[in-house]
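Annex B. Sample input.
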Amino acid sequence: MNFLKVIHIHKKAVMGVICGVVLLSAATVTLPPAAAKVSAILTANEERKLPIYCVDTEKPQISISFDAAWGADDTDDLLRILEENDVKATFFLCGYWVEKYPEEVKRIAEAGHDLGNHSATHPHMSQISSEEIAKELADCHRKVKDLTGIEMDLFRPPFGEYDNHVIETATENGYYTIQWDIDSLDWKEQGPQAEINQVLNHKHLGNGSIVLFHNDAKYTPEVLDTIIKGLKEKGFELVPLSELILRENFEMDHEGRQKSVSAS
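Annex B, continued. Sample output.
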């Protein structure tokens, strides 16, 4: 079983457990305009914290994202397809991937796509200390900034794995923690049509959805153009996560949906 499949079999199991324990009510968090940090809090009793799975918006906008933690052979094809379709995406980069493929990182940045933090070494962050989490974020952040000049503020936990202290530490370090509500399942390598159907006919697909792809999945370069065109035919505008998420005056519901609230 290859590395890609091992990661995402574990990711699927983790997400199943998380969904089973999430509480069914939300608390509102109102941030002032000058706030530099995000607080994603959901609880009946101020206990459970969630990342952003999707955004509650009337605009027919969605974001597509790629996790980059392994090879880079498909990078140029992905960038070409995105450019041909006039789409900006979000790439979550691991620090060791940045070190190994600096030219690819530069091309992604020069093409105008969002760069996000996917940790330095892809650890199980819920199993390490807050200090170690902060170091993972800082090491990846520094490598990307040194290479591109970009200050990242979007974070996707490795394996899709998180708990309160992961989200709190990311927040304290100036990061919005991002998940997804549409998994392309490209890591399963079920074939082109299966991947197309998984995205275009997903029951959760709607305004504010976040789609998960991987930069080195077998069929994604083959199907990405079809998926993008299909999403546009459904009336969606594809925007990077930096344009989709709310940065202040929001709350999180029990599904991890980010919603706007009025400033106090």
